[in-house]
Fold each of these.
Amino acid sequence: MKKTMILLVATMATLLLVNTAFAGGKCPQKRATKSAPSGIAKKDATAKADKANGKKLYEKTAKPMACQMCHGMKGDGAGKLGKALKPAPRNFSCGKTMKKVSAGQMFWIIKNGSKGTGMAPMKLKDKQIWDVIKYIREDLM
């Protein structure tokens, strides 16, 4: 009975560690991302954005590649390509981190990339960027 209990506890601990290893990105995430110019950082054009189009771009059609490839389908930073990046991609599902990131800051980073990370400038029109931001902020955060 004692051996069974020890085996059960060891199995549960192993499963917990494996689950944690494959979970999404850390929360909160520490970043020293360059701030967007104040006029852009304060901007928010998500009210007129198309969330359905943002989802399509995020999941499949954004260029040079779909956002989910690095940020993951859940926005947790656990995409297939994101696992190899240092620092890890932004975890949009981390409320502690994302409450500090304005829509305008997200716009700036998507449009211009983020030096020192794997985030390259996306080849999207401004309207498409706002669509992606609306999807992220309403469905992944």
Note: The chain has one domain: 25-140.
Amino acid sequence: MEGEAITQFTRIAELPGCVRAAGMPDLHSGRGPIGAAFAFEERVLPYLVGGDAGCGVLLFATTASPRAVDKLERRVRAAMDEDPLADCDPIEVFDACWHEGAQGLAKVANVPDDIAAMAERERVLDLGPSGDPAAYRDPSHGRALGSIGSGNHFAEITRVTEVRDEAAADVMGLEKGGLVALVHTGSRGLGAQIGRRYGDATLTGAAIDVYLADLAGAVRFAQANRFLVACRLLRALSALRRDKVRGAIDIVHNTIRREDIAGRAVWIHRKGAAPASRGEATVVLGSRGAPSWVLVGSGHEGALASVAHGAGRRMTRTEARAKLATRYKRAELGRTAHGGRIVCDDADLLYEEHPDAYKPIEPVVASLVDEGLAAPIASLVPLVTVKQ
């Protein structure tokens, strides 16, 4: 682990009101430590969530038939080039998703019928009411809905390659050889705007409720964003129908929730840490050259019922561009060692997000399992990865 990440983690753990802190195996530094969960009594620190409030992972396990990777790549490119909300009012889109998440899309005029039918059955997250959207009502947010964003965000069609627990996998709709739509993204510019508004404040009393209402809106917007990106992947798989989806997992790894730890109610702040209460399905993300893993949590109190959200970086973006540009030719970056394809037109991003820039996923998952935080269910190997 990076020394700076441990220093950041320690600094937060020593703040007044922090009663427990848990660093994940992928702990790394950012504005605050990433890959960590903190429990605070009677205070909330918005900057620990960061500028991508509501970021998380959506998984749709499908009944889609296998296709040649070349054909699948072409279909994914075509689906990602289409804007399903092109005929929609961006303010109407924003308001609907702020208040109701993905389900709100079913009520927006001119949303394609197949997406609206899928959205009708999505759950509205139980977060309490969203705040007043007036301060954030910007057409750019509505127009951004359904986009992946930069950084480590991605959309991916994967194949289930290994199943460790067949009974649990079956409940989740996962079967060996099955195709899965996997999306990692968040609230786009909306989360950044909320982050700027609250800055480095430490909130207490009624101010907590005001922030959490805004956070609820951002989390629901992020959920809708993941859903819409996933719909584009389902369209590429000819699976944009409920009877083609065997199961779904939707988790948020940048948020704050009220939870009970050791018999007392605390505010759990998660940044790059996925919730993993007992029996809760979760996903630990690999890279485009390594599998992601579906796990089921144990509710480990020492780890604040959390697990890592990914493998974690071993190179900064600047280091990756400098080192990997001399190691790999640009033409080599469109494919992975296991035959996967990459849809990305940004050369810098291809180097920054290269598998070599990330730690191996296997030791991260093994450490979570060995410490009793979660149990492995199935691995997902990327076939087509979209980076934007």
Note: The mean pLDDT is 94.
